[in-house]
Design brief:
Chain lengths: 345, 345, 345, 345
């Protein structure tokens, strides 16, 4: 074997990993604060995982950035698998807050002031992740404060990341150009390109009937965002992509649509996990510092609450749920199409 | 052995438990919806655990309702243990949402309309729990809607529960009357009864100095709610109880205060877990029905969001964190008092 | 709406669910043991979920028992989805042990003797689950003890369940008869029916080369169980089914094999979760009663340890991992076959 | 503020942390294996947390190594708090296995052979943790193999750690010398030093009566290990320490014993979590490599199984549960002693 010399601690570069904990409270003039080690280790652990998450999301972006994704290639299968891994990682990141909560506010006070003005807000990797997924600088809560807290070089890194197409835009493109969706002749009886196609007219009318009192406002919303001809600039998803997505969600049982359905689902799970992470993080900060300001000078909980409410990324997918109709009312697909949605046998 | 005949299934009355699943979609005129079974079982499981939580919280209320709690009795130890159990249960109730999320919106649609107007909103046990802890009818979000959705007999049950002193009021009383706190001679150098006592003046001044720019507003808040002579009607905690609680949180290392500190901590954990439960529940509902109305006719997510923001119960304890000072700046206690806070040796 | 009268507590039959907790320690001549309520509620909750798990596994058995499963039907997709749900439920059942562990051994002693000879061992639903999955009476650890502890009627229920084909046998059949696998002409260059087919000869030789010192014994095992012509009676899987499964695991990236791969994976996850559940249960019992006997008179931990080691059900799938070869050494499939493993475009 | 310059990424030394991932499969002559990044990151994350766990356990060892622990100092409170934190961390380490399980065996094969002979077995920190807690080199499963796999310098590090008193020995000492236990006059009616003291004679006789058929063997075990005058060399706990521990477990409701009870409990939780971690790790390895050998040349699962069964550290505490008697049968303590077990009022 060529690399006979591989040894565990060398392979993992543990000399670097395990020597990177330098407590501020151990510096001259301060008193050792026992819990600062935990504070450092948990943040380093978070950053390690952010690196992994960026690596996975980045690889999915690469897959979806290819000029043409073959539906018979393993591409989508792999993309889906990696995004599910991201969800699994996020679940652990959420649970990990339990560890930080073993630090009491009093113990945090022992070193909190020594950290100013550093703050978790300055995690570039987390901001990169938001950018990779699709959050724009202009939509960030407290944008000015945001820019003021980061080194200019770090602001540049994030801006540059925002220049590239984020995941949500690539998913929009994929929904629009899915090869089989582009071939009109593949789809007898359905057309994603035409909002006025009979299929969508039928759908519109069934949907309208399914709404109970107090939900009627959904119909105009459906027509506005699903049946429009053009994408509005503030939308992440085009009406065409939305129609594809809704079709996938409704007819997901057919083999061809199973994987696309899983992909849409995993995007929603990522958003939901990010939201839960933000929420638990906000509560933890509140419990730790109350109404004091964050070490970075932010308003602490108030800032986090702003981000919580406005940083959803895949909300436009979540909204599609409002437009579903019951399975037994679904327009029946032609047998020709049904065969195409399966394998040839 | 007297009860030689105990048999597992009889003991657990499994004939009742396992025969209580009657699907609406199995009734005449409907089509069997596979996932309705899950929907029923998970709600029954929640209700079983709500019963357990009410049983535990109710027993703690009984303990704290005794005219005089001996600090040397196991009472507080037991109360604390049972509230920690409640937190452990809540953690599982939160994780259990993962199970319900395996039901897709499309599968829910198969039977959702058959349930109207029933809704999880009608869970009397959950509302009793809120009442036991200290939420008043008048502070409930959407109070009118609330009353309209319940059978009058159920409204009565909750009102009646609100007539009794809830946990937070009993904790307030306990903080005020803790036997050792009531004996002035026990506490050389500290007095919880007197906001103008030298101890609190010193504390006030240290606290004032510890505030950085942008936190100064906390000082007037401190003086308003901590150093007031009287409790305002809208407060759950009296200034005196707050002073006791803050003292406990700051000097928690002394044996006498360790258990009281754990008790305050577990109350905060209950609030935090309830909040996480509400938040994940809200997100799950949003994912399941989007902007449709709930089966009970509520605005779905909007209602849940209102409850999320306004149903905190122990927030006044959380706020105390804002008033902490660093350990090394804490007023030193007299040696006479320090001995009293420990065991005699 | 037809069923206007649906009310939450009626729908869930909470009158039955919430009235089924009768403490032995509340009966005459005993003293109320606070924690017995927890003991009852957690076991009832487990039984509720066992009912749900049996419902899901039973429905998958029904699906796989159909004479012919169309690969283009949603059958496999649904089966897979439901088995994943079972895994999610099991995860919660495992975490729920945390709740029972809040009961200390001393508190358990307050009512433990009143339960004799009832024991969790008598959970018929759990034994049915094992039978549904594929555990045979004859392979159960401590078979005689087993039969002695149950009411004869309950033994009958389990025996009857074992008469039907369990999940593992149905999966074996499915692997053998997967429609496309049955058509020789579908598979240019591969044949699951023929262990001496060139494809398998090539595989055998690549596999042989991949084994490092100390693993060589795997080769004869490979030839014995994978390349045999006949299934031995003690095997759950036939060599033919094993070849299909291994092929699926190695070439899982192709669309046609993605879902089958997920299905095999979820079976392994079920086994792993069952094992973790048994292990944590065993440790919990050990902590609760030490070397005392169980209430049912069993040897407590010793019995559970026996079951832990011998009640694996899908171990023959796990073993297939030993026979994998590196992706880049895999025999390349013919382009004709590769096209068939995808969708027609 | 003095350290105005603190910046998040500098504070956490992210340049070191995030540059320490060098894939073997990215080296010349190999092909990039996507999942190797995950493999590196998860192991680095584990090592970060092992460092934290060692830091916490090490600090508890320092506390308990003091010549005399004051029962009125915060020492025990802090020790207990930090060991609970260790349990919380371990819970996350266990859940984190879910992340590694998203790597399929096929994906692992892409780089597995490049790692030989490195293996997780070479984690010095994990072995140090075992040594800190109390596992001796001589009791390690497969001792010879063990030594052969490590660099001599690493073997030295572990041996040196074993020279110091481990946690279990310090806990034994603490149980023996607890100040109040050393004062005979403090304990009217009980004596931990004298196994033939009337208290223990009474206990012995009550215990004997409480045993049901099939448990009688426990009585001689009780007398052998609890009532012996001397500690046997192979025991971790002396009979005297065991008597103290049993007394604490039985009379834990008294204020003086509440914290000692929590300490014993948390040791058992650490053992239980370590065991669960080992078990899930073993199953994960089995699923990943089947009956192949580990990269380090070990027998993989077989080695892990050996360690699983023999590396329990606090088993002698767990055994005490076998010797409990029901609360209502407990010898009643004198009122003089009962007062001493509380606070003076």
């Amino acid at each position: 074997m060529a690399n006979e010399g591989v040894y565990y601690s060398d392979y993992l570069q543990l000399d670097k990993i395990l020597s990177a904990q330098q407590l501020e409270s151990d510096k001259e003039g301060h008193q050792h604060a026992h819990d600062e080690m935990l504070f450092i280790v948990i943040h380093q652990s978070y950053e390690l995982w952010f690196k992994q998450v960026l690596y996975e999301v980045g690889s999915v972006i690469d897959i979806l950035s290819q000029p043409n994704i073959q539906d018979n290639s393993p591409d989508l299968f792999i993309a889906n698998h990696r995004l599910k891994r991201v969800v699994t990682i996020m679940q652990v990141l959420i649970d990990k807050i339990n560890i930080l909560e073993t630090m009491t506010p009093l113990d945090f006070l022992d070193f909190r002031n020594m950290l100013r003005p550093a703050s978790g807000f300055q995690s570039i990797q987390f901001k990169l992740l938001e950018a990779y997924l699709g959050l724009k600088m202009d939509h960030r809560f407290g944008k000015e404060y945001y820019v003021s807290q980061l080194k200019p070089a770090d602001v540049e890194i994030i801006k540059k990341a925002e220049d590239k197409k984020p995941l949500i835009a690539l998913v929009n493109d994929w929904l629009e150009r899915m090869p089989f969706f582009d071939k009109k002749e593949f789809w007898p009886g359905v057309d994603m390109n035409e909002p006025v196609h009979p299929f969508w007219k039928t759908y519109d009318s069934i949907y309208s009937e399914s709404l109970v009192q107090g939900e009627k406002f959904n119909l105009s919303r459906f027509e506005e965002i699903m049946l429009a001809a053009e994408k509005k600039p503030e939308w992440s998803l085009s009406p065409k992509a939305r129609r594809s997505a809704l079709f996938i969600m409704m007819y997901r049982d057919y083999p061809l649509l199973q994987l696309p359905f899983q992909l849409i689902t995993v995007l929603l799970e990522i958003d939901e996990h990010l939201a839960t992470w933000r929420y638990r993080h906000m509560n933890m900060v509140h419990r730790m510092i109350g109404s004091r300001t964050g070490t970075g000078g932010s308003t602490g909980k108030q800032y986090l609450k702003g981000a919580l409410d406005s940083h959803y990324i895949f909300g436009e997918f979540a909204e599609l749920t409002s437009f579903m109709i019951e399975r037994h009312r679904l327009p029946v697909l032609s047998s020709a199409l049904r065969m195409r949605l399966g394998f040839e046998s």
